[in-house]
């Protein structure tokens, strides 16, 4: 089992107390994974600045996020899926890509236009995915329209993006910003960077976009709806202002709002078991999407685990209906989809929004 330890790069970043707790929680995991197999791969469809596209989503197994090994974000259990020893060779990573291509050939009619690569860390961090592997992956997908790779903002630079755009592939870097509010990102999520770092990464993407002749480059911001320690109404307010601030940054064309779910081996999980955390209401997600429908960016949300206790949920009766409206909104960006859904539990949600305070949360399960 790989022991979570802070490395020099991580020291002095984030909150020591949060990191200490998260290191202890993560050290409870006892699983190891094959470095020649991707963590997960699936086919789907997605809304991009170039329209709705069929997508192949790949979660590469790269050894996990270094920040997670230092302790890391309070809601993130991804390190539990990483490889023992903390690094994966070029050959093994290319084997993983091969497995994904086979999955695509077996399950899709033709190659997907959009490729999305997540690593449970940073694809652009050269300690996770070296330059040789990054370029080989760019070659492999040179015939596709668009690629999304995930990275922390520190590792985003125009040359790395150019490895993809030079093949004419539109390239987006997905950044787990979580919130535009530095205080919430630091104290509730325990993520170490600032909004200013996100703005710098957006500027790098904008520069890469300018340099590329026949491809676009941009940033997709991932936001976390309802980190721990916020009430329902604080979370909603924070999310609305975060979406507005992200949409205003040039280079950032898409915002993906991810409702927090309770993952194993996280601080959120410990809080949940002590009755200190409830994932967001589906009504909150619908409300935020309605309120931000006119911003200058695509805004989408994919409530993972919707309707379950550990995921975003309403009363149990209406969850599927609201989920369907959210998925509709993702593809069409039309807020009127929410006018057609209603349920008695909306009244409970409104009461929670009005009455829940830091000291009495969560008011409902
Ligand atoms: S959310 Fe991202 S940065 Fe934070 S611990 Fe997880 S993988 Fe690392
Ligand atoms: Zn309901």
Automatic annotation (TrEMBL):
InterPro entries: Elp3/MiaA/NifB-like_rSAM, RaSEA, rSAM_sf. It comes from the Archaea. This is Elp3/MiaA/NifB-like radical SAM core domain-containing protein. Residues 55-291 form the Elp3/MiaA/NifB-like radical SAM core domain. The lineage of its organism: Archaea, Methanobacteriati, Methanobacteriota, Stenosarchaea group, Halobacteria. One of its GO terms (molecular function) is iron-sulfur cluster binding. It comes from Natronobacterium haloterrestre. Signal peptide: none annotated.
């Amino acid at each position: 089992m790989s022991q979570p330890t802070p490395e020099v790069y991580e020291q002095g970043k984030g909150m020591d107390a949060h990191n200490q707790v998260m290191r202890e929680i993560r050290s409870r995991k006892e699983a190891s994974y094959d470095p020649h197999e991707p963590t997960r791969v699936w086919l789907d469809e997605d809304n991009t600045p170039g329209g709705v596209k069929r997508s192949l989503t790949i979660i590469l197994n790269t050894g996990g996020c270094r920040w997670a090994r230092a302790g890391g974000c309070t809601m993130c259990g991804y390190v539990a899926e990483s490889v023992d020893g903390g690094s994966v060779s070029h050959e093994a990573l290319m084997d993983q890509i091969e497995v994904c291509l086979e999955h695509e050939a077996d399950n899709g009619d033709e190659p997907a236009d959009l490729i999305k690569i997540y690593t449970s860390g940073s694809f652009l961090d050269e300690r996770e995915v070296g330059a040789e592997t990054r370029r080989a992956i760019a070659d492999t997908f040179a015939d596709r329209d668009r690629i999304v790779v995930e990275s922390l903002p520190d590792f985003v630079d125009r040359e790395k993006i150019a490895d993809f755009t030079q093949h004419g592939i539109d390239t987006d870097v997905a950044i787990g910003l979580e919130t535009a509010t530095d205080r919430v990102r630091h104290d509730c999520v325990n993520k170490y960077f600032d909004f200013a770092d996100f703005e710098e990464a957006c500027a790098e993407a904008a520069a890469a976009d300018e340099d590329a002749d026949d491809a676009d480059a941009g940033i997709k911001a991932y936001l976390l709806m309802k980190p721990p320690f916020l009430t329902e109404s604080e979370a909603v307010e924070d999310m609305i202002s975060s979406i507005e601030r992200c949409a205003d940054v040039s280079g950032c064309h898409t915002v993906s709002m991810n409702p927090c779910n309770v993952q194993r081996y996280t601080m959120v999980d410990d809080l949940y078991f002590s009755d200190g955390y409830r994932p967001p209401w589906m009504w909150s997600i619908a409300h935020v999407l309605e309120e931000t429908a006119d911003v200058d960016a695509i805004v989408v949300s994919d409530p993972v685990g919707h309707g379950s206790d550990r995921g975003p949920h309403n009363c149990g009766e209406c969850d599927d209906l609201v989920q369907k409206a959210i998925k509709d909104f993702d593809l069409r960006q039309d807020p009127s989809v929410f006018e057609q859904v209603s349920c008695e539990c909306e009244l409970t949600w409104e009461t929670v929004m009005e009455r829940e305070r830091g000291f009495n949360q969560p008011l409902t399960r």
